[in-house]
């Protein structure tokens, strides 16, 4: 559910929104232990600097709650001082065990968008976004989520050239960087989350 307000010219911002929502995600067997319910809320405001130029600033929070449950894990005994395979020593690596894991997390998303348009034949925009995922697991053997923070930074820009009264050509690019920290802030190298990605695009927009 989203509420929005439009303000008059004397106000510093032009448009404000408040968003609240809830949801549920249900996995098919055998991944039911990842099921979660979520509550989300967000606020955003758009400021108009001059005719055709605007800045939108937004923040969104999400609480995604999971009930800890057993998952098959491969654990090293010497990290926990536990004899997982019961053979009397504490030196075996990658021992398969079922232990509780917790997929709960808090999400924070910050976003800034700048737009230039109006009567000029050339306009454009810049988008900047930061997403922080804070995993909250306190389960003893849940190494994948313990002290884990995922960070994603996104940057995009585009230039729009008006070709005729109702048609415009947009040229743009966007990129993202994502990384994960774990265990007191040390970078956990070599995870599937550590990546850089980019996209370049051409878009023809026609208004009817
Ligand atoms: Ca052992
Ligand atoms: Ca052994």
Condensed summary:
The protein is mostly beta strands. It is built from 1 helix and 12 strands.
Structure commentary:
This protein has 208 residues and is mainly beta. It folds into 2 domains: 2-67 and 106-206, Porin, CATH 2.40.160; 69-101, no CATH class. The protein is built from 1 helix and 12 strands, in the order E-E-E-E-E-H-E-E-E-E-E-E-E. The protein has one helix at 77-80; strands spanning 2-6, 15-25, 36-50, 53-66, 69-75, 95-101, 105-116, 122-135, 149-164, 167-182, 186-187, 195-206. The chain is elongated and about 80 Å long. Bound molecules: calcium ion (CA) (2 copies).
How many helices?
1
Oligomer class: single chain
Span between termini: 29 Å
- Number of separate domains: 2
CATH architecture of the largest domain: Beta Barrel
Largest sheet: 10 strands, antiparallel
Overall radius of gyration: 23 Å
Provide the succession of SSEs: EEEEEHEEEEEEE
**Secondary-structure content class:** mainly beta
CATH class of the largest domain: Mainly Beta
Estimated helix fraction: under 10%
Uncertain runs with pLDDT below 50, 5 residues or more? 183-188
Task: Give the mean pLDDT.
Answer: 88
What would the CATH topology of the largest domain be? Porin
Count the E strands: 12
Instruction: Please tell me what the overall shape is.
Output: elongated
User: Which molecules are bound besides the chains?
Assistant: calcium ion
Percent strand equals: over 45%
